[in-house]
Amino acid sequence: QAANLLPVPVVLRQLAAWFRATQPHQRKTGLLLAYLAFWLDEMGLGEFYDLLCAQLGDGHALLLLDGLDEVPLQDDALARIKEMIGDLPAAYPTCPMVVTCRVLSYRDSRWQLTGKAWSVVELAPLDDDQIDRFIQAWYNQLAAMQVVANPKAQSGRLSQAVRRPDLWRLAPNPLLLTVMALVHNHKGELPDARAVLYDDVVDL
């Protein structure tokens, strides 16, 4: 069951920045393993490298490769990361793995993954209940961090604000809902118009 798997999050733009700066000789799965060793060392957790590798090999981990479309096209960064991703299903045949990419970017063949191991799934938009639960969870977390004092009132105001006609069609998109939550928390309100919202995001 997925609930029992160890999540291993890898931000692909950070992996690309690391190997472009250090130019390691490793290729394919070796590139991922070298990055994981670096990543753990950076957090002071280098002693867990062998355990993490064992979890991947035994299929007890969930490998989350995030943001393929954020890998730069310069040099051979994208080619090397796609080569690495293409090697992983054979290296860890029992390990579930997910690669994320924005929909518009994935329509470009440069970012598409090939091979039978990769099925393409597009995330459904959030429904009304999920939007409200996201907003409640957002402000509950900010309250737990002592950033806000009244999460119920704040989440109620944001739930109303995102239902304005010019903003409501943005709310089902998790990224845009997050952006609206950031602006709302920072400014205490949301603008009525999308164009002003985008200006606020850039300013923020």
Short characterization:
By secondary structure, this protein is mainly alpha-helical. The chain is built from ten helices and three strands, in the order E-H-H-H-E-H-E-H-H-H-H-H-H. Helix content is about 55%, strand content about 5%.
Describe what you observe in this structure.
This protein has 204 residues and is mainly alpha-helical. It contains ten helices and three strands. It has a three-stranded parallel β-sheet with strand order 1-2-3. Helix 6 packs antiparallel against helix 7.
Contiguous low-pLDDT stretches (5 residues minimum) are none
> Could you give a short account of the major beta sheet?
3 strands, parallel
Shape label: globular
- Terminal Cα span: 40 Å
Query: How many distinct beta strands?
Result: 3
Q: What is the typical, i.e. mean, pLDDT? A: 91
SSE succession:
EHHHEHEHHHHHH
Strand content: 5-15%
Major sheet strand order: 1-2-3
Number of helices: 10
- Computed structural class: mainly alpha
The residue fraction in helices comes out at: 40-55%
Taking all Cα atoms into account, the compactness measure Rg is 20 Å
